[in-house]
Design goal:
- This protein is mostly helical.
- The protein is rod-shaped and about 145 Å long.
- It starts with a helix and ends in a 6-residue tail after the last helix.
Length: about 325
């Protein structure tokens, strides 16, 4: 990269200022030294071929990318901006600044940057000029991982995949990227399950799952959040199912002093806000009120009857005592 583009820009600058530049040329004498550029080491005896081949490749890249795109690639590289940015090629904005931290590009990240900026394939040039046989397998793995990435990005919309996936792709850690993409696909299926269950229960899903999915805690944390939300939806659904359709007098007595309907409404609001613990508490309170109402009513009736008998007995005793104390009453 360094030698090829140094020679390319030197000859273009020379042409602009009228200076003859002795660019490396591919000669018949250099051809026997032919080797893939990833295997070329300056000073190893293949320099005539290596310098000339690097320049020819740089020209081919410029022809395919164009001046503007190549300038954008150099700017991104100088700013530590890699490929696989959220929303595509980085366009700095207040809401989504580009992800930075990339090292100076090597043969892998340079390929990624070129294709991200231009939307065109440079893989054929890399296979022809750059990669050794051992590197070719990486290009195959790259194609598979990129196809899975594009599909998962599409499936996730409008959610953003976690940065760890993009970092793995930028580092060409395709096994790790694939494992995370498969985990992301599982969470997206859970997202659909939560949406369906919430809709059936008349609930509004909170934003917690999206935040967990896009955050840095890891996709297992997002999967756990989805399972918890499904469990809470089930608890609220069971609570609503436990509500008596037409409370009889016994149930009405048992429900005096409680407001299970208000607890259900509070559970729905708590779920929508993402406070799953509170949602469970309110749902449990409503369920407890409805399921224990008959026992509470019986207890209250027994207590009321006992109290009534006690009052009657007390009244009888008081009346009897007053009669005994009345003047002229029998002793």
């Amino acid at each position: 990269i360094a030698e090829g583009f140094a020679a390319l820009y030197a000859e273009r600058a020379g042409a602009t200022i009228g200076v003859d530049v002795a660019s490396p040329k591919m000669t018949e004498g250099a051809l026997p030294q032919a080797t893939q550029l990833n295997a070329w080491v300056a000073g190893s005896g293949a320099d005539d071929y290596g310098y000339a081949a690097a320049l020819l490749l740089a020209r081919a890249i410029l022809d395919r990318a164009g001046d503007d795109a190549l300038r954008d690639v150099w700017r991104a590289a100088a700013s530590g901006i890699g490929a696989y940015q959220v929303g595509g090629w980085p366009a700095a904005s207040d809401t989504t600044p580009p992800e930075t931290g990339a090292a100076a590009p090597d043969w892998r990240s340079f390929l990624d940057l070129l294709e991200a900026r231009t939307g065109r394939s440079f893989e054929g040039l890399w296979r022809a000029w750059v990669v050794r046989p051992a590197d070719a397998a990486l290009l195959d793995a790259r194609s598979t991982a990129r196809a899975l990435y594009d599909q998962t990005v599409s499936d996730a919309g409008p959610w953003t995949l976690p940065r760890s996936i993009r970092d793995a792709l930028r580092a060409w850690q395709f096994d790790s990227a694939t494992a995370e993409l498969e985990a992301a696909a599982d969470v997206l299926e859970q997202r659909a399950d939560v949406a369906r269950a919430a809709s059936a229960a008349g609930l509004v899903p909170p934003d917690s799952l999206r935040l967990a999915f896009e955050g840095t805690a890891g996709l297992p944390s997002a999967a756990a959040e989805a399972l918890t939300e499904l469990a809470v939806i089930g608890a609220i659904r069971d609570t609503v199912a436990a509500r008596p359709a037409a409370p009889d007098l016994i149930l009405q007595i048992g429900l005096l002093g409680s407001d299970a309907d208000a607890d259900v409404a509070a559970a729905r609001d708590a779920f929508a806000s993402g406070d799953l613990d509170a949602a469970l508490r309110f749902a449990a309170a409503a369920t407890n009120a409805w399921t224990t109402a008959p026992d509470v009513a019986r207890g209250r009736l027994v207590s009321g009857t006992t109290l009534g008998v006690a009052i009657l007995l007390l009244a009888w005793l008081v009346i009897g005592r007053r009669r005994r104390k009345r003047p002229g009453a029998p002793g």
